[in-house]
């Protein structure tokens, strides 16, 4: 199915991508999943060998971080390059611009991001 679709699109829009053609104006964007700053700990690998609990001492009480800190980013790619040109949009930086410093992006914040950051970045590339 993919090959048939790709062949139809190439025949319809041409084999070369040009800025004035449909594929030349396509902007593909996405959010990343949360990128962890620290790697996840596999608790099954944390084994303490000792002859008794008292010999293990403080090793049995080691704290573990349940939810590691991370960063979510937004970016896009097009025929003319990356959008924004210099770096992706960091969601945590965007959240800091709002009262109460929310931890997650809501629909209003997403709309503001599109209007204030993504729109001008796309116009800058095109």
Q: Mind explaining what this structure looks like?
A:
The protein is of the alpha+beta class and 126 residues long. It has 4 helices and 6 strands; from the N terminus they run αββαββββαα. The protein has helices spanning 2-13, 53-56, 91-95, 107-125; strands at 27-31, 35-36, 70-71, 73-78, 81-83, 89-90. The strands form 2 sheets. Strands 1, 4, 5 and 6 form a 4-stranded antiparallel beta sheet that branches. A two-stranded antiparallel ribbon has the order 2-3. A hairpin with a 2-residue loop joins β4 and β5. It starts with a helix and ends with a helix. The relative contact order is 0.15. The model has no long low-confidence stretch (mean pLDDT 81).
Uncertain parts = none
The whole-angstrom Rg is 24 Å
Sketch the major β-sheet: 4 strands, antiparallel
Helix content: 25-40%
- Beta content: 15-25%
Characterize the overall form: elongated
| Euclidean distance between termini CA atoms | 32 Å
Instruction: Tell me, rounded to a whole number, the average pLDDT.
Output: 81
Helices and strands, in order, run as: HEEHEEEEHH
Number of strands: 6
List its salient traits.
126 residues, alpha+beta, two-stranded antiparallel sheet, 4 helices, 32% helix
Short description:
The protein is α+β, with helices and mostly antiparallel strands.
